[in-house]
Amino acid sequence: MRDPPVSDARAGVSESRGGHDMAEITEARQLCDDLAAHCKAVDRCLIGVEHEVFLFTRADHRPLPYAGWHGIRAVLEAFQRFGWWPSWEGERLVGLNRGEAAITLEPAGQLELSGAPWADLHGVQAELLGYRRELAEIAEAMGLGVMALGFAPEWTRREMGWVPKSRYRIMRAYMPRVGVHGKDMMTRTCAFQLNVDFCSEEDMRAKFRVAMALQPLVMVALANSPFADGRDSTLTSYRNYVWLHTDSARCGILPLALSPALSFAEFVDRALAVPMYSVARHGEHLDLAGRHFPDMMRGALSELPGERPTLQDWKAHLNTLMHDVRLKDHLELRGNDSLSLEYSLALAAFWTGILYDRQALSGALALVADCDVARLNQLRHELPRYGLTESERIPVAGVYAADSFPEALERALALAEAGLQRRHRLDAQGQDERRYLRPLQAVVALGRSPSEHWRSRYHGRWCGDLRPLYERATL
What we know:
two-stranded antiparallel sheet, disordered N terminus, alpha+beta, nine-stranded antiparallel β-sheet, Glutamate--cysteine ligase, GCS2
C-alpha cells in the first residue's frame, strides 16, 4: 500500500510534473488528460519496485514500536547516514528520500522501499542489493531482524503499534465499516509490488488486462504467508485472504480491467465512484472518509466549502484504490506477498518479459483472450488455499486458454523468458535479464511455493516451532 508522506516526492515509474499537480480540477476530462499525458515512448518505459518487510527485535521476536531507541523512528534516523533525507508529517519523521527512491512506513511500521525507476532489471537488482546491505547493517547494530513474509506469523492485531500518520488514523476508523479484515491488512501484511509504464491507451488496456488475468499464476507460485496467530492457517497466502475481506469497493479483481471498453475515461468514471479517504492540507490529512470526489470537484464538500481538488488530491485518491492491479500514472501490480530479494527479482522478471515485449504481450493476450470476469473472480477467491503441489486441481476453464493451471503457468513463464531474451538487456558480464527469472522457474519445476516450503519445515524438522522462521524468511 503506497502511502507517500505529505512532504514526500513520489517514487514510481513516471517522472514528477511539479507544479502541474496543483492545478485545480473541475471536470473529469482533466483527469483523463492527465492519465493520457503519462503515456511513454517504448524506449522510455521503466521498471520500479516496492518492497515491504517486517522488522522485529532479535532477542524476543517482537514487532517494533514507532518510538524508542530500537523503534521505527530510530531505524529511519539510522538510514540517514547512507544519504537518505528525512520526510516529515508535522514534527513526525515518517519517511526518507534519496534521489528518486523513498523509504516509507506502512501503518504498523512495516518498512517499504519505493524504488527508483530503472531501464532494466540490472538496475533494479543493484538497488535492492544496496538497500538490503544498508538495512542489514542497521539491523545488526540495533539488534533487529528483517522478515519478508506476506503476513505476520505470530503477532496479533492488538500487539501491533500504529505509526503516527494522520491518514492511517482516518483509515483505521473507516476500515471496520467496509470489511472485517481492514485493520489486519493495515498492520499485519507486507507485499511486493511492481510498477510499469504504458505507451498509449491501447497499450494500457492490453497490459491492464494481462496483468489482472495472469496475476493468479504468480500469486500461487510465490505464495509466502502460510501462518497467522502462531499457527498454520491452512492457507498458502493468508495475506491474500485478508485483502479479499478488506473493502470490496477497492480491493481484489477490478472487472473493468478485462473490458474491451476500458479507456482512460471509463477508468476515471470508475475511480470517481469510489469513496474518498482524505486530502492533505497544511501537513495533515483531513478526514473525508465516505465523501465523493465529484462533490469536491463541485466545491460542495461541507468540510472544504467552495474548494476544488488538485491533481495531487486526485493522485492521492487513486492511491486508495487497492485492486490487484491499479492504474495511476503507471500500472502497479500488487498481488504478491513480500518475498526474498531473489524471488522479488524473479517476479519482476516475469512481468518485465511479458509486459515489455510486444510479442510476449501478444501471446499473453491470447492466453487470456476468453477470460470471463466472473470465473476469474471466483478463481481469485479460491487462490489463498491453493499451493503448487495441488495446482492440477485449480480450475482454469473460462479463465485461461489452457487445459490446467500448471500448463497456463508454464506457458506464461515461456512467454516471459522469450520476452527477456528479445529485450537483450545485458549486464557488465554480458548476461541478459533471463537470469533473474531462474528462481521462479526453479519453484515451478520443484512444484512447491515458498509457503509450502515453510509449512513442510514447520510440520517436519521444526516440530511446530515458528522461531526458525524469523532467521530464515529474510530479505
